[in-house]
Sequence to fold (229 residues):
Amino acid sequence: MTFVFPGRPQPAVAISGQDALFPVNRIYCVGKNYAAHIREMGAEASRDAVCFFLKPADALVTDGRMPYPPGTANLHFEGELVIAIGKGGANIPAAAALDHVFGYAAGLDMTRRDLQLAAGRVGHPWDTGKAFDGSAPVSPIVPVAQCGHFARGSLKLWVNGLLRQDADFGDLIWKNHEVISELSKLYTLQAGDLIFTGTPAGVGPVVAGDRIELCIDRLNKLEVLITAS
Ligand code: MN
Fold:
């Protein structure tokens, strides 16, 4: 097969302790998955339906440097646990869902909050607020065999050394196995998919020069510097 010009490189994430990379297919995200965060955004928690959205796979940032994006004056950090899918499937039962997990990573669902809120006010999609270049910094993935699963565990995020998010996965509204199962009713999951599982309370703005540190128990620390655009 030939192409009229070279395709872009396969998006990929490092795997802790291995030379081989994790080739990324899609990036799914869960919104509204911690009650305290939903309250800080001015809404009420619900288990009616999971709030899913996507980011393009080439939005990944794996070198720890995120250029401040255009079109916003209110770029927010959202520290999140990321599930890396190692075995695809559709209509996956919740009881078997964790068998589809390759590993876990720490990720930032970076958000142009001004654009997201403006879109929501007029019933437009969230894409410009959520799915932009550089909007998905992630740490290397730790395989399940090394880190286990995350029914509980601590997530802490600092900006310039100040603690801004401090939560436990026990407080997730939709647990990881439920997220995988519900998502697989809407999309056929593939090995290589990433799922950002939602952010706890404490989100806020960053500017160029700010340093974000995200620590999740048993995972690699994610450090991201916001650089001038
Ligand atoms: Mn999020």
Notes: The two ends are 37 Å apart (CA to CA). Residues 106 and 121 are 30 Å apart (CA to CA). The pocket of manganese (II) ion is lined by residues 29, 31, 78, 80, 109, 196, 198-199 (CB under 6 Å). The domain at 12-227 is CATH 3.90.850.10 (Fumarylacetoacetate hydrolase; domain 2).
